[in-house]
Write a structure and sequence with these properties.
This protein is mainly alpha-helical. The chain folds into 2 domains: about 1-130, 2-Layer Sandwich (Nucleotidyltransferase, domain 5), CATH 3.30.420.10; about 135-174, no CATH class. The protein is about 50% helix and about 5% strand. It is built from 8 helices and 2 strands, in the order H-H-H-E-E-H-H-H-H-H. A two-stranded parallel sheet has the order 1-2. The longest helix has 24 residues, at about 110-130. The radius of gyration is 17 Å and the shape is globular. The chain starts with 18 loop residues before the first helix and ends with a helix. Endonuclease that specifically degrades the RNA of RNA-DNA hybrids. It is found in: Cytoplasm. It is an enzyme of class 3 (hydrolase). InterPro entries: RNase_HII (IPR022898), RNase_HII/HIII (IPR001352), RNase_HII/HIII_dom (IPR024567), RNaseH-like_sf (IPR012337), RNaseH_sf (IPR036397).
């Protein structure tokens, strides 16, 4: 995320914002700022684990963002929510980075990135719910809610479920 100036007002951790406010901010961010999303598919998450997939998704997002930035602008520093960066964990990572614990509530550019990421993922889950209506993904966004877990027990996993997701892995042992 390269935050525009002036930045959209009201940026905060995406989890602290209402769905309506996130959607409004997403539209402003996408219209006025440079942004990119890194997507890692369920099979790759299973292969790498959640942490490795997160590092890959960050790398993919920054690579895509760098393609939008003029070469003379360059990348100053990548701010990352959390306590670790992909440096030394992904061979493609080549940018200076600074991890910030709680960064999605502290740094406006991380807040904006968290809004874009959450809206992107929620949109994917709403679309997936159309093909797999039993799981309630339009409501639970794929998280392990009682509704989702009950549907897994009744209908089994879909190709979109990570095989390493504990409830799916447990079903496979039965």
């Amino acid at each position: 995320m390269v935050l525009c100036k002036p930045r959209p007002s009201g940026l905060d951790d995406s989890k602290k914002l209402s769905a309506a406010r996130r959607a409004e901010l997403e539209e402003k961010i996408k219209r006025r700022c440079r942004w990119a999303v890194g997507v890692v598919e369920p099979e790759e998450i299973d292969r790498l684990n959640i942490f490795g997939a997160t590092m890959l998704a960050m790398t993919l997002a920054v690579q895509a963002l760098c393609e939008q930035i003029a070469h003379d602008e360059g990348v100053g520093e990548v701010l990352i929510d959390g306590n670790l960066t992909p440096h030394g964990r992904r061979p493609e990572w080549c940018w200076p980075a600074r991890p910030i614990v709680g960064g999605d509530a502290l740094e406006p550019c991380i807040s904006a990135a968290s809004i874009i990421a959450k809206e992107h993922r929620d949109r994917i889950m709403r679309e997936a719910a159309l093909a797999h209506p039993h799981y309630g993904w339009e409501r639970n966004a794929g998280y392990g809610t009682p509704e989702h877990l009950a549907a897994l027990r009744e209908h089994g996993p879909t190709p979109l479920h990570r095989r390493s997701f504990a409830p799916v892995a447990q079903l496979q042992l039965l």
